[in-house]
Design brief:
With about 300 residues, the protein is mostly helical. It has 13 helices and two strands.
Length: about 300
Amino acid sequence: MTSNEQTELSRSFQPLAVFGLVARGAVMGVAEVLPGISGGTVALILGVYERMVGALSKLVLVFKDLVQFKWKSLGQLPQPLTVLVPLLVGMSIGALVAINTIVHVVRSHPTLVFGAIFGLVLGAIVFTFRASALNRLLLLLPLGLVVSLAIVLLPKSDTPAGWILIYVGGCLAFGAWILPGISGSLLLLILGLWQTMLDAFHALDWLKMLVFLTGILTGWLVFSHPVKVLLERYRTSVMALFCGLLVGSLWKVWPWRDDSFPVLPHQYDGNADIVAVILLMAAGFGLVMVLSHVYTKNSS
């Protein structure tokens, strides 16, 4: 174990550091349940993203060494877990709270919830825009926008989710979660799996949960190390691409909709709650701006 890893290990065992990771994980868990903002984006804003991706990547390498019976790698195992276990505990708490509370609000007051999500996404767009460079944005933001619109404009499927689709959804959801730019829940919503998996976790449908979690495990093994390498070598390009992905996702999280099509507030069939929605948009945007300011200040 290197001196940097020993320093990281001792720092991670401090009670305040553990509590901070749990708290960050809880916010990430809530964000991942709601389509619109990625847990990876929240991790980036909260200043824990690089540590999380590094720990995930390192744990993949440890796992592969253990499979190959390279027992000397066991000495590396505690360090990534001291980051990932508190984050996972916090994410589980946040996700359970969101599933059992916020989801009911989504069903009864969808415009209010998606108004807040819309503001969060707007804030994330500003954050990723600032984290990139102009030449990268000119090249890659349009590409991300086209890809995102191609995803969100896919025809909605009303057929029951099959087991393979649930597995693939778990794999892609992890890939989206670890990338700061597109929400795993948004991908599930596009695939027609969001409500299915919310109901499965709420009702403790263990079989669906197991298939989904197996997909997440596969996504961890496939995506963790490549994402770490990409961010280390091409950070501004990755941020520019994700900025475009977020801009395209605004279509999906617009609060006033006629079935699946965005409409203006006066065209909405129901109580548009215009003032409340605008206030929640502003609150969501302001929250991300405050968090991103804290992140930038701590990084400088």
